[in-house]
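Journal club prep — side note

Before the paper discussion, L.F. wants everyone to see what a predicted structure for a comparable chain looks like in token form. Sequence:
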Amino acid sequence: MEGEIWLSASGLKFWKKSGIDRSFRMCYNGGMICRDCGKSFKVDKFHPKILICRKCAIIREKSRNSIYVKEYNAKLKAEAMKRSGGPVCTCCGEKHIEFLAIDHIEGGGQAWRRQNKIKSGGEFYRWLRRNNYPNMEKYRVLCHNCNFAIGIYGRCPHKVKGDSN
């Protein structure tokens, strides 16, 4: 990049003492080159060890948070499944928790979610936990295939009369 120099020998001593990677580059304007995107940025005097720009730091933080949120939602889902009869589809017996969902037995789940402003499964599981798993007899565990079939066709193909399954 134009406008950048490698740190001088005296600068390397400073960076060595502070524990920052020596291969890092400094710009003429006193800024640094971001390790992730390669753009120059001003060094914060309160956080001199940070080697990435603010934009890249936000991206890193979002990815860390998304991993944490996914793990937390999976934990809440497993807990809700246990309270609702165990992580097994009540229709076909599917046991992989990734394929399972909680279903409203009487239907009307979509209208209920809109009324309570719940936009995702994670929010639903958090709502259940926050409200101490109310009326769990109104819910059942179904796999996504059975849940979809019951929602669209009113019945599951596993329960068709004359079927050998």
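L.F.'s comment for the group: The beta strands are 4-5, 26-27, 32-33, 40-41, 100-104, 139-143. Keep this in mind when we get to the figures.
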